[in-house]
Amino acid sequence: MYGRKVKLRLFFILSVSLILILSVFLILRSLEENVIYFQSPTEIKILSEVEKKKIRVGGMVKNNSISIISNEVKFVITDFKNEINVIYSGVVPNLFTEGKGVVAEGYLKDKNFFLATKILAKHDENYMPPEVKAALEEK
């Protein structure tokens, strides 16, 4: 019924479409496994159940909450509504201080306790490294 050229074009279009759909599916599937969700202490408090997936908790380090014992750092992250206790073993970033923003990556043990595997300290848009600041003041 259809000519050879029409059948060949149809086969080519269907093949390319199938490969494209399969590629998009595989990319989305791999991204789904590697996504780490960000949550605040308030969002954690309203969870129905605690999942054993890696998440990021963000907020401010509560004043007078940092406790360092050998290589273990304990502190409290707050969003000024709710708080979550965090334990981290390792070296913290230089920008990690009380009253500053922080993002902790790790695993939720329960709604009040977070075991961090990585600490990411945040700074504001006006931050300038001390070396650059000193160099600008000299000029």
Task: Identify the notable features of this structure and list them briefly.
139 residues; alpha+beta; OB fold (Dihydrolipoamide Acetyltransferase, E2P); 2 domains; elongated
Describe the secondary-structure layout.
Elements: H1 4-34, E1 37-39, H2 41-45, E2 54-61, E3 67-69, E4 72-78, E5 83-89, E6 101-110, E7 113-121, H3 130-138
CATH class of the largest domain, named: Mainly Beta
Order of helices and strands: HEHEEEEEEH
Backbone shape: elongated
Class from secondary-structure proportions = alpha+beta
Task: Kindly describe this structure.
This protein is α+β, with helices and mostly antiparallel strands. The chain has two domains: 1-34; 37-121, Nucleic acid-binding proteins (OB fold (Dihydrolipoamide Acetyltransferase, E2P), Beta Barrel), CATH 2.40.50. The chain has three helices and seven strands, in the order H-E-H-E-E-E-E-E-E-H. A five-stranded mixed beta barrel has the order 2-4-5-7-6. The radius of gyration is 25 Å and the shape is elongated. The N and C termini lie far apart (83 Å). The mean pLDDT is 85.
